[in-house]
Structure formats: C-alpha cells, structure tokens
Amino acid sequence: MIESYWIYAIGGIGILLIFFIWSLHRRNNAAFVGIFLLLPLLSSPLWVHIHQESVHMQTKMHSLPRFLQPDEARVLGADARGRDVLATTTLALANTFSFSVVAMGFSIFAGMLLGFLSLHRKKILSGSSELIFQFIESVPFVFFLMIAMGVYRQYELVHRLQFTTDQDMLFLGIVLGFVSTPLFGRMVQQNARRELDRSYVAALHGCGVSVFQIFWRNIIRNNLLHRVIVQISVLLNIIILMSTAVDYMFEIGFGEYGRAGVLTLGRLLAQNREALVFGKASWAVLPPTFAILISVLGGCLVMEDPLMKVRRHADRRASGDATHKG
Question: In whole angstroms, what is the distance from residue 151 CA to residue 168 CA?
Fold first, then answer.
C-alpha cells in the first residue's frame, strides 16, 4: 500500500475542481461528460485513503473464495486469486493516477526546460538538449524501463535496502516521465522556435524589451499556454496506456521485476487472464478494461475545447502568414 495517498487525494480533488470551474466558465457540455468519466480516476486515491484497512484486507490474496460470483456483499465478485474485484480495481486506479501525476509533473518540467534550452545560443546547451531528446527517442521505452528497473532493484539488493512502496511509485513515475519528455519538449521547441523567427520578436528586442518578458508574455502566455493544456491531456492518456502495456508485459513475461511492483490496471489485467483461460469469473477482466477506456475517453473530452482553440489559432496564423506573403 502507498503511505501517501492523501497527497494524491488532494491532487485529484484539486484537478477535479479546476476542470469543473473551467467547464462552467466555458459552458462546455463535452467537458462535463469528460469530468464524469474521469471521476473514478481522480477520486480513487481519496477513497483508498479513507478505507485503507478494508482495501488492504479485500485485496489480499486468497482472502475470499476464488471465482466468487457477484452478489449484494461483493458487487463485482472475486477474481482467480480470491480478491474483491471492486477493491482491486479501485486500488489499481489510485496507483495508476499516483505515478501518472509524478510522470506528468516530471515530463512537463523537463520538457519545458529542455525545449527552451535547445533554442539557446550557446551550442553546448542546445546541443546537449538535442542529444537527450535523440537518446530518449531512439531507445524503445520498454527496454529502457526494464534496464532502469533492473538497476533500481540491483541497487536495493547490493546495499541491502528495503525501498517503500512510495519510493517505488516515485521512481516509476520519474522513469515514465523521462521517457515521455520528448512528447512535451518537442512541442515547446517547435512552437517557441516558430515564434522567435517572427519579425515582432526582433522589433521587441529593438525596443529594449527583456528576453524574459518576450518569453513569458509573447511565447508562453499567448502561444504555448493553451497548447500546454492540450498536451497535458494527451500526455495523461499516453502515460496511462504506456504504463498499462508495460505492467501487463512485466507481469506475464519479465519475471520478478513485474511481481515486485504495486497493483496497477495493467498488472490487474495480466493477473486476471487466468479467468479467461479457465472460462470462469470473466467479469474480473471487465472493470479494469472499462477503467482504462473511460479514463482515456474522459481526458479527450475534457480537452476537446482547448484542442479546437489550438486548431483555430493555427488556422488564423496560417491565414495571416498567407495574407502577409501575398
């Protein structure tokens, strides 16, 4: 169990309130539907934090009869390992949200930093940033994650340490954030470079406007902010799908490193494949599957309006450039 669920619970409630207030302001019906679909993901850390003892008991292996059918006491029944399906799905959602938040935070910070450094006049800074981007893009993320997890576990073994679940989740989130850094950094790099090549930037320089003011007002606030909001939604969906695929593969093919982790949606799907093989308790596979689908769909719907704004903004820029050239 993660000891710091309350931190992620506060984060989930904060994100939910921000989405709700923003949807009221924009009067966007699609965003309201997206918030409703994201509700299980964002509220799962709070539910697990409040019911930690019961969740721990219900997700313990062989605490219930195997392949227990749904009834009034167990709404979704028990899986092939004798665990309550509702409790395991909620815990997996909370864990997935927890390291996704860490991964998004790291990816946004590193992507912004490397994206701007790649445009620096000093070749050592711009070249180093470009090399980091190329390295991450050239190495398959599955193999990079396998190597990182192997080094992490080997360090724990050699130094006779016992990492907590919080430390495991933090490390996994940082590694996933590092792997997904180019998704955010390249967007920052391309848009910032396009803006810096425009004539108004040279005019502002000539008028004595500082570089910081140009970057903040004209590049970040007026050009990158709404794109960042859209990219966060895309990044969340990618991290959820990426982590689900990796956890699934770790559990069925990569041995002890998969079994040493925490319960996530991908790992839950891998463990419940026994239900499909034996043709029993097939309902155990449906909750994590639907949890992944509604989380990804909810993120897409919430950010539909900013995405349309980005497209309209790009169309206006394209038409303006065409008129200027004409």
Answer: 13
Helix, strand or coil, per DSSP, at residue 99: helix
What type of residue sits at position 92? A
Return the percentage of the chain with pLDDT > 90, whole number.
0
In angstroms, the Cα distances linking 301 to 35, 135, 178 are 8, 33, 26
pLDDT value at position 252? 58
What structural domains does the chain harbor?
5-65+80-325 (1.10.3720.10)
DSSP state of 78: B
CA atoms of 98 and 90, how far apart (whole Å): 12
Encode pLDDT of 208-229 as tens digits: 777 677 777 777 777 777 677 6
* Helix 85-117 × helix 181-196 angle, to 10°: 30
pTM of the model: 0.79
84: which DSSP letter?
A: B
Rounded CA Rg of the chain: 23
pLDDT tens per residue across span 271-321: 887 777 766 767 778 888 899 899 888 887 877 665 555 555 555 555 555
Rounded distance, CA 256 to CA 85, Å?
A: 24
Q: Please provide the size of the chain in residues.
A: 326
Reported as a single tens digit per residue, the pLDDT across 73-115 is 788 888 877 888 888 888 888 888 888 888 888 988 898 888 8
How many distinct helices (H) and strands (E) make up the chain?
A: 16, 0
In angstroms, the CA 79 to CA 276 distance is: 11
